[in-house]
Design a protein that fits this description.
Elements: H1 10-28, H2 37-60, H3 64-93, H4 102-118, H5 127-148, H6 156-183
């Protein structure tokens, strides 16, 4: 039922993020075969639709941090990565010239730097949401360094497990925001922020 005002789109964006984290965990830790790659690409393109909507809505709500994070997640983590996975699969099938995937490392490096340097902004968010970001702060730089060839692919275990942690906390946070909002009381505790915001209008209690 409509409440007469724009609702918080964050939970949908966190579910899309969790989907990406869970599927990358499965790939990085060998839970699935490499033949899943084009299917994963399609799932990530679906996640792009969700996250770009969330990013635009968050920006319209005046959320400079969440809005920008979801916007660049939608473009690069979802759309670009999803499309690239499909391209790489087709390149293998049709024997295209070898692709220098180190360019991915440079792209991921920029995303990792942005994510890490923006992290202090999440000290004013619920603790469970901060946990999502801190887990990504480990996973994303590891992915960047692997793609650059600085570290070996044995680090997939590290990136994969921290992606899983991020996905779990993302689902937990999204569940808390939805249920706490619907029932207008704390059903799922999310933990208070490390830095108290000036406004009482936080994501959820």
């Amino acid at each position: 039922m409509s409440q007469g005002h724009a609702a918080n789109p964050g939970p949908a964006g966190l579910v899309a993020l969790a989907m990406a984290c869970f599927t990358f965990y499965a790939v990085h830790t060998g839970k699935v075969e490499a033949t899943c790659i084009p299917l994963l690409g399609v799932w990530l393109l679906g996640g792009f639709i969700v996250q770009v909507i969330v990013g635009v809505m968050e920006l319209n709500h005046g959320n400079v941090l969440g809005g920008n994070i979801f916007t660049f997640f939608s473009a690069f983590f979802m759309f670009a990565t999803g499309g690239e996975l499909i391209v790489k699969f087709l390149a293998g099938v049709y024997k295209w010239p070898a692709l220098d995937a180190r360019i991915d490392g440079w792209a991921w490096l920029a995303l990792a730097i942005a994510l890490v340097t923006w992290t202090p902004g999440y000290f004013k968010s619920p603790l469970s949401l901060l946990a999502v970001v801190l887990a990504l702060d480990i996973a994303v730089p590891v992915v960047a360094l692997m793609d650059l060839g600085v570290i070996g692919h044995e680090w997939h275990a590290v990136s994969g497990n921290f992606l899983l942690i991020a996905g779990i906390f993302g689902l937990y946070t999204s569940t808390g925001v939805v249920l706490n909002t619907v029932f207008e009381r704390t059903i799922i505790p999310l933990g208070g922020p490390l830095v108290k915001p000036k406004s009482t209008a936080t994501l959820a209690k």
